[in-house]
Design brief:
By secondary structure, the protein is mainly alpha-helical. The chain is about 55% helix and about 5% strand.
């Protein structure tokens, strides 16, 4: 299982993720962001859109638990299976895991054209998350305060687990985005968008970890 990192360590990881995103994806143009290997595989822009959607699903509860100091619900306080799920997720969601996991429909890319500011939107969101990390150190016990998973109400995670999961998830997907950029077809994208595929209709049944039919 991946070692659970402290809030201080995670704040450093957030800074590294921002630098990674800026250095490796910050100069991509609109056409590069919107290119995808196929209709069943995500492109760089779609990967970042997925991260934005997934992270946003935690923000309301982070605000509620950290700044408003709302207590745990009965389920959040008592469910043993939630604690087991937290350990399982930490083991399987990181960049070194080969576990294939499907993304729920509500967390998939919209299927619309990706805006050219998507990388900078991601970096801005990281600063928001880092702010919650800083506040959590002063406001709450990050091991005891729990939130319900946005994926399923049957699972709950401690605030510390949530921040670890967010960072691991992002690290995994940034690796996936780099692999997309290594594809010859991506490197041959015309600056005028001549190789850009037609817009997708809705969200295809993408696998979060798919890469050319394999794993991330």
């Amino acid at each position: 299982m991946a070692a659970v990192k402290s809030i201080e360590e995670l704040m450093v990881e957030i800074d590294l993720l921002c630098e990674d995103a800026r250095a490796n994806f910050g100069t991509l143009n609109y056409f590069q962001l919107n290119w995808a290997p196929s209709e069943k595989e995500w492109g760089v822009g779609q990967i970042f859109e997925h991260l934005l959607i997934m992270n946003e699903s935690y923000v309301f509860d982070l605000e509620r638990k950290i700044n408003r100091k709302e207590g745990n619900s009965f389920r959040e306080s008592t469910a043993l299976i939630s604690r087991l799920m937290g350990r399982w997720m930490l083991k399987n969601i990181g960049p070194n895991s080969t576990k294939i996991m499907k993304s729920p429909k509500k967390f998939k890319p919209s299927g619309k054209r990706i805006r050219k500011t998507i990388i900078w939107d991601f970096i801005e969101q990281q600063q928001l998350l880092k702010g919650y990390m800083e506040e959590s150190l002063q406001q709450i016990n990050v091991n005891k305060v729990r939130i319900t998973s946005p994926v399923s109400s049957f699972y709950t995670f401690s605030i510390l687990e949530v921040f670890n999961l967010i960072v691991l998830h992002e690290q995994r997907h940034l690796q996936q985005a780099k692999r997309v950029m290594e594809m010859p077809a991506f490197q041959n994208i015309k600056s005028d968008g001549g190789d850009l595929p037609a817009p997708r209709q809705g969200s295809a049944s993408h696998n979060v970890w798919e890469y050319q039919g394999g794993r991330s």
